[in-house]
Amino acid sequence: MKTTITSLLALVFLTKGLLAQPKKQGFLYQDAGKPIEERISDLLGRMTLEEKVMQLNQYTLGRNDNANNMADPVNDIPAEIGSLIYFSSNPDLRNRVQHKAMEKSRLGIPILFGYDVIHGFRTIYPISLAQACSWNPELVRQATAVAAQESRMSGVDWTFSPMIDVARDGRWGRVAEGYGEDPYTNAVFAVASVKGYQGDNLASPTNVAACLKHYVGYGASEGGRDYVYTEISNQTLWDTYMLPYEEGVKAGAATLMSSFNDISGTPSSANEYLLRDILKKRWQHDGFVVSDWGAIVQLTAQGVAKDRKEATLKSFNAGVEMDMMNQCYDRHLADLVKEGKVKADLLDDAVKRVLRVKFRLGLFERPFTPVSTEKERFLLPKSLKIATRLAEESIVLLKNERKTLPLSAALKKIAVIGPMSNSKWNLLGSWRAQGNADDATTVYEGLKRELEGKTQVVQAPGCDFDGNDQSGFAEAVNMAAGADAIVVCLGEKSQWSGENASRSTIALPQLQEELLFALKKTGKPLILVLSSGRPLELNRLEPLCDAIVTMWQPGTPGGSPIAAVISGKVNPSGKLAMTFPYATGQIPIYYNHRQSARPHQGKYQDIQAKPLYDFGYGLSYTTFEYGDLKASARKVKSDGTLTLEVAVKNTGDADGLETVHWYLSDPVSSISRPLKALKYFQKQLVKKGETRIFSFQVNVKKDFGFVDGKGEKFIEAGDYEVMVKDKKIKIEVTP
Ligand code: NOJ
Fold this sequence. Notes:
Rossmann fold, binds 1-deoxynojirimycin, six-stranded mixed sheet
């Protein structure tokens, strides 16, 4: 049905406005020596209304691999289409269709090919939530640069990434895709990934255009259900959700994606305040906004537009320039312009924005992707090394009683048990692009390789990920009873997180918990290895385990990084970027909450008030001792600067990477503020016995200041607190 409609549309366009004979050579817009803005104006001046409208539409090309957004393949792609989502891992198909655009369309405007390259294209690196736990933005920049190289060389010019939605409800499947619960953390990794994808020059054959998504507030989805309403006050919008976008725009992100959610009655994809007043006017973003898949037509479901035409009007006028698979702009935008409901100037502005990104990508000069072998572009040794290091640094050691980990070399035999123990597929996570599970190592394989010649490694799944079948328990328990330690690998299937993958509880299925209870009865040391796309509820398991470590979803490196941590070759350094609640019922629970009117009261009667593991928590095989916080001054002017320092000594017996998190609080403010807010972090290697200084160069207005419900930054005189771990000092800010 969709195929037919699209083909018909193409026909209508071809017979309507595109018949004028092309004169393809020698136009100013084709002269690479001319400034981009002049080229855009020249080209725009030659375009018909229908050609302009077609630039603002995106269809799909190739075999759709996105289960949540299925569409029939469009076989007859109009040569004038603006963009395509490219579901393929080699450039052939792209080049064929691009030839059509360049040769059969009147003006030869290249098509922009986009794709969901979320945590790697073929070399898959850990999910974003894991990346954040590495606290290593430079490594994330390198990983996103690998993704860009593999993508661009495969025919993809534009990734729908990074996702920078602050998210505080682990039931929401998409927490896997973002950088956790903290606005500053999301902002830092937004910048790192934009730099990695785009590099210094979008036109490089190994860079792609980035897309900040989902603008904005999608992470506030009620109850963690996907696509639903979000209740966000203007104050919360600004102090929680906007920072990552503002910083991502400053870093030069070429595009943004408007989100699905209705924000307190005005859906993001029809939100003029956010899209036009803030993004385009205040932040001066000169690239374009693409709707999320179907987000325009869904304005009808959300009850703010009566039909596709009204949805087109609302979304376009609000500032969404490109229609991703809505069949709205292609059907209705030209008529709306003719009827005077959409101003011609606004249409021109939208087209200019899309063309600007195409010019910046160098598509007019190099519309085709050079053909290369898979070996030349995928899984390069350097790429795998980056993915592996990122996976290692993302691993968070949550518990380690009596130094259970690293495993003692004296152990003769370990049993690797659990549904995750020999799985490849689930280690890749959701949004695996062109990732291939066969490239990954399982935990069992990783441990066997790592411990070869030292410790015997045996394996049994024990059970599936869910269901009731306990028939494999006996074999697993027997095997475990004959070993010196048990590594029990539990967790979530890939499809349990990501888009449209919410869960009512963040606990593991009962079957997996029962397996661990059964293994506990062997009396052997129990090491719980977790792989998931979200924080998990562990309160029944935690007391039974000697050690707990999460590897999230590590991607192509699979089980090798965790094996290196278990063996002690790698000292874990990850710290949580999202709180692990004690129980699902505590959600939302996050570190940067505001103070209760009665901090000593109001708790749940049946469970502890504190989460199981806090934001920023993570153990190491060594110990670090923090000195007192030092400040270059205790009294500063509100427009001043300040240097803060802390000395960190490695007092254990292994070298270790340590991340220092600098938090700030303003105990009394005209607008109540989070109890503490992360303002800066830094990771350094501290060798055993060594002391390193960690410092924070404070810009008082920026770092101590706050933002009001209109997005205006302000700073008030008074006492502020700076916190690192349990150390605290007061700084007085004067006007
Ligand atoms: C819908 C998702 O919300 C978005 O993140 C993704 O980029 C688009 N589909 C395209 O696949």
